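Fold tokens
===========
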Amino acid sequence: MKTSSSLVKKLVVYFLLLNIFTVIVIGSYSYYRAKDALVERTFDQLTSLRIEKKYRIERFFNDRILDVNLVSKSNDVRNILSYLKDSAPNKKLDSTINEEYNRFLHKHFISGSYYKQFYVVNNKGRSVIFSATEDNPSEMQYSLISKLLISSLWDKILDEPGILIEDYKLDTLTNLPSIFIGAPVFDENKTILGIVAIEIDIEAINSIMFENNPHNGLGKSGESYLVGNDYLMRSTSRFQDNAEFKTIVKTEGVTEALYGNTNTKLIKDYRGISVLSSYSKVEIPDLNWAILAEIDEEEAMIPIESIRNNIFYLSVLMSLLLFAFVYIIARRISLPIIKLKEAAQKITQGNYDVFVEDIVNSDEIGSLIEAFNEMSSKIKDQTENLKLERSMRLSSMIDGQELERQRLSRELHDGLGQSILAIKMRLERIASANPEKLKKIMDEVQDLFANTINEVRSISNNLMPAVLNEFGLVDALVNLCREVSGSTGINVEFNHESLSLTLDAKIKTYLYRISQEALNNIIKHSKAKDAFITISSNEASVSLQIEDNGIGFNYIDNRKLCGNGISNMKERVHLLDGNIEIRSEKQNGTTIKINIPLNMAKNGAN
């Protein structure tokens, strides 16, 4: 005898099995998605840190190159080299050289605390070494180049004069690594007199790379560091003291970075621990270094354990609640839920004119259907309001841009500080100038005034052409075409036909900006020799056509790739309730046709 079971029991049993399966699938999916998202976010943080450190270390070395280049051209350095050449060391010579060094060079070196020692070596190999720190400002010693770490740097610069960075070398006396930047020194006849070299303080590099703050996003195990092409560290380690030029880092990330690859990966680090690593090559002249930002996988994955537990507890709770809910309402929801589902699908397809008939008496299901119908009506109203609000926002944004251009046009009359400062400096020289220089200064002042006036007029006219408001759209477009023809060599012809109506100020401004944007695109991209602008109107609309005989492009295939220029033109036309048509083919030029409807009552009032 078959055992009968009610539909409710079947629904409950089926739903319970389905729910268990769903919880397992969704829980597993959510867990792994969360894990992937966490890994991706951690890689993003490491990449951001690596990029920031890479930029700072490259900027640091570029600044040091500029420093040594500046110092190599100093007269103080040339004087020191002349003393080394002409005299043997003595107290008087020591005092003279020290005076030359302290006049400018020492103050320059200690201003940034980036250096340890400064070397001046003549082309015979005689050198004098100065302290580049605040601790021993008067410390100075002589030496032959053969006894110094920079001997190979000296040879290379003398063979091929130019600024050169020499990678880390180990000082046998201090057992510490050193890094130098050198540059040749020339006399007035471009004859090389010798070189200057600066020993960079490695702590300056460590101050950029080292992170030991657990609140900086790297936690307790994250670090960023540099590695040379010999696989030795070039900066300190968070886990090993005095790691510079001692700790070997021959990992997958370092190898790929030294070959010029940039990537993020889960790898083993120099400690043999699994880490999330972001790496790339550092672009520094004469150095082949890699930069890495890493964090232990174990620490990075700590949040996922909490997420896994939360998913499990939430799944159990939801299963119990849904089980009770299904048992109570299973008998009453079958038919209404189908109707509601069909109505919801219509809404997702964009049909908001949906009304579900109440097929149940006045109970909870009836209230649900009533609420659904009310929701559908509100979604329809809100969608229409959102479209209107979007249009109003775009209009306000573009109108605000026009107002901002007018404000900037006025303010820029008072903002040309550099030109005014140049005029002031020349006028200050009048008091001490002889008649001949006075005339020259006055001529320069006149030229500067003329240039300043022209620049103010040019900036003001670009932001908001006065001719547009004073004389109208036709004169403004004539002026625009003349300026483009004169400045680019493109022949721009302008025709206006039957433009007898008084246009609204907004329409004039938008049509002018559209023409300006189209001409900018022709100048930048078309390689055209001729361009044509035609504007005409009737009682119902105003039409604008811009065309050129340039190289064109495949507009249908590249619509998604079009830049802001075409997008701005489309948006302005849309805000005027107009339509725009763009036709272009390769080697056949481009044509833009725009039609804007006119509100006659509004135009007449204007």
User: Anything to note?
Assistant: DSSP finds 16 helices and 15 strands in the chain.
